[in-house]
Amino acid sequence: MILVELSKNDGLANDNRLKLLGRAFNNALKINNDSLKSKYYSQISLGSMNLGDSLFFRKTNGLALQSSIRAGDSVTLAESHWDLGTFFRDNTVEDSAYFHFASAQKIYSSIGNEFLSGRMLYNMAAVQGDVRDYTGSEINTFKAIELLKPLDKFEQLYQCYNNLGAVYSSLGEHTKALEYFKLALNYLSKFKDGNAEFIALNNIGDTYLNQKDYVSAIVYFQRVISAENLKELDPNTYSKALSNYARTRLHLKDTVGIKNAFSESLELQDSINDIVGLSLTNYYLAEYALSKKDTSGAIAYAKKSKALAKRSSNNKRLLESLELISKLDTKNAPQYVQQYISLNDSLQKEERQIRNKFARIEFETDQFIEQNQLLARQKQLWLGVAIGLFFLAIAIVSIISLRIKNQKLKFDQQQQKSNLEIFNLMLSQKEKFLEGKHEEQKRVSEELHDGILGQMLGIRLVLSGLNNKNGETSAKQRAEYLKKLQDVEEEVRTISHELNHAAYQKIHNFIYSVQDLLKSIESSSKVHCNFEFTTHLEWDRLDSEVKINIYRILQEALQNCTKHAFATNINIILGCNEKDILVRVEDDGVGYQAKNEKKGIGLKNITSRVKKMNGTVAIKSKIGKGTSLLVKIPFADKILPNDPIHKSINNEL
Predict the structure, then answer these.
(1) Distance CA 509, CA 433 (A)
(2) Of 376, 415, 645, which Cα lies nearest the Cα of 535?
(3) Euclidean distance between CA atoms 515 and 521, whole angstroms
(4) What is the mean pLDDT of residues 305-312?
(5) What is d(CA 193, CA 157) in angstroms, rounded to the nearest whole number?
(6) For residue 6, is pLDDT > 90?
């Protein structure tokens, strides 16, 4: 979100940055997607925590937790637990801090994020160190190192080894503490963080100080306090090192100017409100006053250290202060000893309770993770079942699709077989036509040869004989033979007319096949078929596929007329225009509502055939008024001028 990014600008006042976060929060409330909403809430809550608005943080963090759980967003859920753990640690609520760090760690571990899982283990170890659960802190720190070391996460490894040094230093095992502090310093050299180096040097010096190796200790403290600009850049680290440096000089009996060093340290710590540092420096000043035989001054500093330790909840310093006061204030020593014993006992009891609580948290979070893993396995099982059903459905659909394709292939094969039969029938019809044509030619030849030529030869011979004769009888005979010549002329004309009519009709094989189809329909049903066709198109010159499809269309249409329409009269017209072949079939059957009626197999077959020839189909029908089927098939060649039949069809189209 842009508003969240703007709120990260350090140049703005905190109030303005919080206002930007408030506007971002109002926008997030309007989002319906829980996954997206949880991410925005998480970013807003982190920003509000960094700006110190604890109420706004708790509100937005709670919403982030709820929405990430609803959305199943493990990453945002872990981040929200992490932020809440940090918040509780900053406010010294250690058990809650540990719980949320542990919850985040289990989530990161379950999703395989070893880096963040290691960081959470370090946070858990740091909380355990705060409450003196050193064994638990040591175990979790080593777990963190085991995850982070293969990843070469040098900064986090520095923090882990530094924590191990602090743990062993608190346990009094100074040699091990030095070993881990120096390992931390070694990792520190592999990444850039100048201030961290001085913290590490101060820790090493402090360990030498506790080990009473004052000569080694002062070397490290001098390296810190002599660092350029450290006082301005990191007054906290500088003031601690300065206080430790002054105390080391006290033990080395070099007391010149150390009071000023303590005073400078106090002034810095007070300016940054470092209560823990003030408590420690006052404790050192009590030791300094005691070395100067100033018992009252030492008691005053020790009491001030005690008050500051109590204020900062620093129980270790509180115990040390009580112990020192009991030694200095002999009059009230029993009272302070009793306070020391009581506080120590209560701390030990509290620490045991917290350690037990930590163990219980570990157990409960393990149970939580086991439940999540069980749910995850169940989810995987259901996902596997769903995937199996999905592939089963695909297999079933594929099988059905293959069966449909096989059925279509069989149908196409049957169609090809039927088309071949029709083609063979047409060839047979053509052979019969040619045979008839030859017979007719033979008959005409015989008529001309045997009849006409014979008569003309006889008449020529008689007339040749009569040319040499005169008289009435010869004249009559010539007249009779002239009459016979007229008869021969008439007979020749008749034969010519017959031949010309046959040529004009151009009746060929395709038309014969259609006529045979109509005769078979008439003979098998009580229907009368009226057939008209254009003579301006040589039907047998059409492509075989076109003729077969037209024949099939007529066959389907006639079957519908007789089987479904219960027609008594059917008109069939084959025509053409300049672009198209036109086929029309109309009946006087029962009819139907063409818009509402579903197409049967017959009409689907007709439509399919016409589509193959890039044609169009038009069906007109009314209940009680018959049905009209009109097919238009594109024809590439130009056709002769219109004849009456196709002209009427073209007008209706």
Answers:
(1) 7
(2) 645
(3) 10
(4) 89
(5) 14
(6) no
Q: How far apart are CA 542 and CA 611, in angstroms?
A: 18
Residue 381 and residue 365: Cα distance in Å, rounded? 24
- Choose among 534, 547, 511, 550: nearest CA to 639: 534
Q: How far apart are CA 365 and CA 578, in angstroms?
A: 88
Structure confidence by residue, pLDDT tens digits, 404-454: 888 888 877 887 777 677 767 766 766 766 776 676 665 566 555 544 655
Burial of 226 (0-12, 13-18, 19+ CB in 10 A): exposed
Bridge partners of residue 416, in order along the sequence: none
- Quick one: fold of 509-652? Heat Shock Protein 90 (3.30.565)
d(CA 63, CA 171): 41
Residue 572's H or E segment, with its range, is strand 569-576
- Spatial separation of the C-alpha atoms in residues 6 and 9, rounded to whole Å: 6
Which distant-in-sequence residues (6+ apart) come within 8 Å of 581 by Cβ? Answer: 537, 542, 546, 550, 574, 575, 632, 633, 635
CA dist 448 and 250 (Å) reads 159
Chain CA centroid to CA 477, Å: 113
d(CA 512, CA 539): 11
> Using one digit for the tens of pLDDT, what is the confidence trace for 33-72?
888 888 888 999 999 998 888 999 999 999 999 999 988 8
CA dihedral 184, 188, 194, 200 (to 10 degrees): 10
CATH code for the part of the protein at 193-273: 1.25.40.10
- Chain centroid to Cα 19, Å, comes to 36
Q: Which of 619-626's residues contact partners 24+ apart within 8 Å by CB, and which partners?
A: 619/594, 620/594, 621/591, 621/592, 621/593, 621/594, 622/591, 622/593, 623/590, 623/591, 623/592, 623/593, 624/590, 624/591, 625/591, 626/565, 626/567, 626/586, 626/587, 626/588, 626/589, 626/591
In whole angstroms, give the CA distance from residue 21 to residue 28. Answer: 10
